[in-house]
Design a protein that fits this description.
Aminopeptidase; globular; about 40% helix; 8 strands; alpha/beta
Length: about 210
């Protein structure tokens, strides 16, 4: 089950990148704490992975609010114009979930876009990356109907309208626990983003 109802004040800097606006190859996001989750595992994983991913990756924190998250994400996309974007969120379970589609939330008007959109992040590549760090995972076609799914749909609809970012995906991570400490989740996120970043860099080198 994915979460998404906001009932906690946002920490300072939510919806903002960890660096000043600049072009980047990959935009990576996590969500703020909410409810009983005083620490959101998605943001902890992103925050810890950020220093190891290098300057080509922008890491940003999003609010747990459907409309605000979609607005903040659109602003980040416009500011950084990434070639790929991976959203991460917290969901109960004992495996990470590679989300393959997103459905338009009922609170978004039908005229805003299709009912369902499919992710474009390379699924096989993400699966191989997670296996390389022994992270248990599964493919999922149900991103949860809360803020995670609405934000994922907003990303895919932005891509549909603008034609970029080319690679757009969502990775759900379990809550922090003895079996899933923040460092382990960070390694998983780093593996997925790092493998995509390496592919993007290879393509850029071929062109030059």
């Amino acid at each position: 089950m994915a979460f998404g109802i906001r009932d906690e004040p946002a920490p300072p800097g939510y919806g903002q990148a960890m660096t000043a606006p600049r072009p980047c190859r990959i935009l990576l996001t996590g969500f703020e704490p909410f409810g009983a989750h005083r620490i959101n595992s998605s943001w902890e994983a992103c925050r810890l992975a950020a220093p190891r991913l290098g300057e080509g990756v922008i890491v940003a924190l999003l609010p747990v609010d459907r409309r605000l998250a979609a607005q903040e994400l659109a602003g980040l996309l416009e500011a950084h114009r990434p070639r790929a974007c991976l959203l991460t969120g917290l969901a109960r379970g004992t495996r990470l979930r590679i989300e393959t589609r997103a459905r338009r939330p009922r609170s978004f008007p039908a005229r805003s876009g299709p009912f369902q959109l499919r992710g474009t992040w390379p699924t096989v590549e993400a699966a191989l990356a997670l296996r390389s760090v022994s992270a248990p995972f599964r493919l999922s076609c149900n991103a949860g109907k809360y803020v995670c799914e609405s934000t994922y749909w907003a990303l895919l609809n932005f891509r549909r309208q603008r034609g970029w970012p080319r690679d757009a995906g969502f990775l759900h991570v379990p809550p922090l626990s003895h079996g899933f400490p923040a460092a382990r989740l960070a390694r998983a996120v780093e593996a997925v983003v790092g493998r995509r970043l390496a592919r993007l860099d290879r393509r850029r080198n071929v062109r030059t």
